[in-house]
């Protein structure tokens, strides 16, 4: 994988270390009266840029069924492999929903992280949104987003990791 850090000059003996390349981009958390907190860039961002890599906290199917689904976690978790559920730590839990999203995400099962990547060029102050799918549990209050020229499915198919 391109993002793996094979440089051992830094007392780093972990050849599987995940490089957090996204931290070069200036992002802000801003509060919206209806959508709550959301993620905004302070600068323009080119298409296909990694804007966030979120480590995930995994819940087993039993743990989620007995506890997680009855808590606020249910609004934040992603379906993971083998029936597990994943809470994205960091900004991964802060992306709001848009039906025409400007950010796609890739579940990296090998490294237990979710990678968020821009699907088109983005202007400063344009909210970064992902698509939660069709079963929304709230009334969609997304700003009009410019149509992406790719949908999430095509995007995932074309993204090289
Ligand atoms: C994963 S959280 C996103 C972060 C959240 N805004 C916060 O402040 O914690 C999902 C929640 O954000 C809100 N939300 C996300 N996208 C929205 C949208 N398009 N319209 C209205 N509310 C939205 C809903 O309350 C939803 O349960």
From TrEMBL:
<protein>
    <recommendedName>
        <fullName>SET domain-containing protein</fullName>
    </recommendedName>
</protein>
<dbReference type="InterPro" id="IPR001214">
    <property type="entry name" value="SET_dom"/>
</dbReference>
<feature type="domain" description="SET">
    <location>
        <begin position="25"/>
        <end position="133"/>
    </location>
</feature>
<dbReference type="Pfam" id="PF00856">
    <property type="entry name" value="SET"/>
</dbReference>
<dbReference type="InterPro" id="IPR046341">
    <property type="entry name" value="SET_dom_sf"/>
</dbReference>
